[in-house]
Amino acid sequence: MRFDVLTIFPEIFRSYLRCGVLGKAIEKGIIKVSMVNIRDFSSGRHKNTDDRPYGGGEGMVMKPEPIYNALDSIDREQNSLVVLLSPQGEKFNQEMAWDLSKYDQLILICGRYEGVDERVRILCAEKEISIGDYVLTGGELAALVVIDAVSRLVPGVLGSEFSNLEESFSDGLLEYPQYTRPRVFKGLEVPEILLSGNHEEIKKWRRREAIKRTFERRPDLLEKAQLTKEELSFIEEMKKKE
Ligand code: ADE
Questions:
Q1: What percent of the chain has pLDDT over 70?
Q2: Distance 133 CA to ligand 1 centre (A)
Q3: pLDDT tens for each residue of 146-202
Q4: Which residue has its alpha carbon closest to ligand 1 atom 7?
Q5: Starting at the edge strand that comes first in sequence, how are the strands of the sheet with 105-110 ordered?
Q6: Which of 127, 151, 175 is the last residue of a domain?
Q7: CATH classification of the domain holding 29
Q8: Which residues line ligand 1 (CB under 6 A)?
Q9: pTM for the full predicted model
Q10: C-alpha 138 – ligand 1 centre gap (Å)
């Protein structure tokens, strides 16, 4: 899978993309990330990428031509999507990450300043994504979030093809508590069941803990989760105890 990022700060991406699972996937060639510097496509003498807003007001707006020309310079795969990162976009979540992982190429446009000229939205963007209801100083962090969450769903990126299946959100539930050595840390013991070697019981315990945690922290997620009759009555019991 290939990502092409349009940005005026390509250096933001380099160190993050060298590290960990993502770094390995790039080294192996499973994932490719290229940065295109929007400034290289500015025609003015000063290579400006922003200008004052028509109608007045605070701040600067990113000019349309450099972004349009930068996009034009990219080789498009057949199965590709152009995404604009902005706080006005559709909210990013795990389901969207799965959908995006089906593309061969994602082209990510990172805005800066007070936003981008509306013509970029109309002419270039096929999808607009926000990573949450807060305003960042630019789309670069949001692009990294999308690259990270999507890449780990691409086959071969994680050690085992299945290691992402049990995690938070992939079955609509938060993850169960995890423990490693030592067995006792600052007086806190690892739950006995995890030391029992009884895989069936451990699986049941983890499922119950995942449901309990989701109920306590993100009850909104339970509406979409796939639950058995037994699990639904377990939730009813917890509700009564509240
Ligand atoms: N650019 C600035 N804020 C953003 C956000 N919350 N999501 C995506 N892009 C952004």
A1: 96
A2: 8
A3: 999 999 999 999 986 556 555 667 689 999 999 999 999 999 999 999 999 999 999
A4: 130
A5: 32-37, 2-7, 105-110, 80-91, 127-130
A6: 151
A7: 3.40.1280.10
A8: 85-87, 130-132, 134-136, 138-139, 142
A9: 0.95
A10: 6
